[in-house]
Amino acid sequence: MNELNGGASLMPLISGIAFAVVGLIAWFFVNRASVRASEQIRLLEALLEEQKKQNAILHQLTQQVVGSEKNMADDAQDQDFTRLIPER
């Protein structure tokens, strides 16, 4: 009889330890996924900042190109306009 009582009293202890181990394993994987997600978010934010910088530089470059093209077009129009003036 004592053996049955001893075995029955160990069952809750063993199941408690098993639940604790399963809980720790689950916590490990959830924590690991959370850390990875946080790192990915940090990397994506860094990429976003770099893209913003590149867009600003690209915008400056396009404004310079557009400005130089306008100057060239104005020069070309000025030359064409002088040709249209009749000589006296």
Automatic annotation (TrEMBL):
Residues 69-88 are annotated as: Disordered. It comes from Mixta theicola. Residues 34-64 form a coiled coil. Pfam families: YebO. GO terms for cellular component: plasma membrane. The keyword Transmembrane helix applies. The chain crosses the membrane at residues 12-30. This is YebO family protein. Keywords: Cell membrane, Coiled coil, Membrane, Transmembrane, Transmembrane helix. It is a single-pass membrane protein. It is found in: Cell membrane.
